[in-house]
């Protein structure tokens, strides 16, 4: 059972690595396009830096087990993330679509890290737990920030539209 659980853990680490690459592919275009929402842009830039750190921690966990990430999964998920960003860019309510998608994706990441933590605890991988917890904490903080700021972003968007200003981004 331990060998099977370990295999599931390694697959989960590879999936999380690909997931974080998808997050970067979603967030980086957003950060480059946001104009009227400086608070959102700032938080996205902060989370991009956090995401880069999360990728490094995942690579460390894989390397400690003589494993590597899946370049194929990373590439596919990056393309998927980029396509989502492109799809939202053509929408009049791009900022709202991005905000909703980001909130959903953060909660997906939270679930993934909770799953990895359960496996790490089952395998008694004490060195992995704090690294995974740090990733989880950052994802939870971003999800909380998005939740707390969604109403303000929505109302700012509506106010800009009402004033006849560019509200899109």
UniProtKB/TrEMBL annotation:
Residues 41-68 form a coiled coil. Keywords: Coiled coil. It holds the Pfam family DUF892. It comes from Kaistia defluvii. This is Ferritin-like metal-binding protein YciE. Transmembrane segments: none annotated.
């Amino acid at each position: 059972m331990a060998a099977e659980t370990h295999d599931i853990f390694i697959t989960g680490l590879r999936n999380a690595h690909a997931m974080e690459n998808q997050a970067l592919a979603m967030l980086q275009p957003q950060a480059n396009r946001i104009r009227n929402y400086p608070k959102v842009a700032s938080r996205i830039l902060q989370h991009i830096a956090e995401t880069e750190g999360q990728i490094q921690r995942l690579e460390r966990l894989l390397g400690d087990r003589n494993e590597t990430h899946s370049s194929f999964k990373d590439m596919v998920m990056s393309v998927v993330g980029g396509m989502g960003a492109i799809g939202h860019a053509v929408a009049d309510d791009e900022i709202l679509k991005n905000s909703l998608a980001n909130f959903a994706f953060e909660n997906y990441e939270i679930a993934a890290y909770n799953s990895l933590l359960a496996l790490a605890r089952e395998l008694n991988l004490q060195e992995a737990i704090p690294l995974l917890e740090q990733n989880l904490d950052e994802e939870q903080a971003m999800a909380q920030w998005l939740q707390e700021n969604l109403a303000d972003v929505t109302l700012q968007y509506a106010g800009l539209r009402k004033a006849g200003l560019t509200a899109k981004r």
